[in-house]
Amino acid sequence: MADPAITAATPGRSLRIEPLEDIQKGLCCCCGHLAAAAAVAGNALCLTCVPAYALDEPGIDDVATLIWLPHVEQGALSRCVTALHVACAAEGATIHDETLTGRSKDARRVLDALLACRAGSNERIGTDRPSLLRAAMRALQGHKPPRPEGETGLRVLTLGLWFPDHPRRYYDAAAEWAKSG
User: Fold this and answer.
1) What is the percent of the chain with per-residue pLDDT over 70, rounded to a whole number?
2) In this structure, which long-range contacts are made by residues 163-167, counting pairs with CB atoms below 8 Å and at least 24 apart in sequence?
3) What is the pLDDT of residues 71-125, one digit of tens each?
4) What DSSP line would sit under 80-94, residue for residue?
5) How far apart are CA 59 and CA 86, in angstroms?
6) Which end of the chain is more exposed for a tag (fewer CB within 10 A), N or C?
């Protein structure tokens, strides 16, 4: 799947959440790890990967943040984020709880380290807000991406919250994933 920043530069396509078509059911086309739960621009994505591409969705800045992590692909980051949330859910917690212990506390430390990578996004494009990425990338159309393989190094870090229509959806899913495995 394309780098989220490169997808953001694609003209004419809405980057909003769409229902899955029967033909799209299967594994997420970004991380290849979880079952697809929704589509964005025709791509079947899991709940962890949806925010990386749903940049036109209202509330995206509450659901995700931009980080600079050029050595990790978006799908690998999403698999890591899923594991962090599942580790917390397995202990009956969310990664945003005030008092964490054990693996949940370790998961929060990893999330904090990833959140520190927002500084790199701010240094490079002046923001860590996914809602502004689309406009920034469109302004750069016609310029080559900074890396030869078409990757920007910008990644979208899912925070574990969900869009306003169902704010606990991701937490509930992480709890189910923890039970199943």
Assistant:
1) 92
2) 163/17, 163/57, 163/58, 163/59, 163/60, 163/63, 164/58, 164/59, 164/62
3) 999 999 999 999 999 999 999 999 999 999 999 999 999 999 999 999 999 998 8
4) HHHHHHHHHHHTT--
5) 23
6) C
Give pairs for 33-40: CB < 8 Å, separation 24+: 33/75, 33/78, 33/79, 33/82, 34/82, 34/177, 37/173, 40/15, 40/16
Whose tokens are 């969900």? That residue is: 162
Residue 116's contacts (CB-CB under 8 Å, 6 or more residues apart) are none
pLDDT of residue 154: 92
Choose between 10 and 52: higher pLDDT.
Answer: 52
Report whether pLDDT(46) > 90: yes
Q: How far apart are CA 38 and CA 133, in angstroms?
A: 21
Beta bridge partners of 44: 39
Q: Cα–Cα distances in Å, from 84 out to 17, 88, 96, 109?
A: 24, 7, 11, 10
Does an H or E element contain 76, and which?
helix 74-90
pLDDT of residue 18: 92
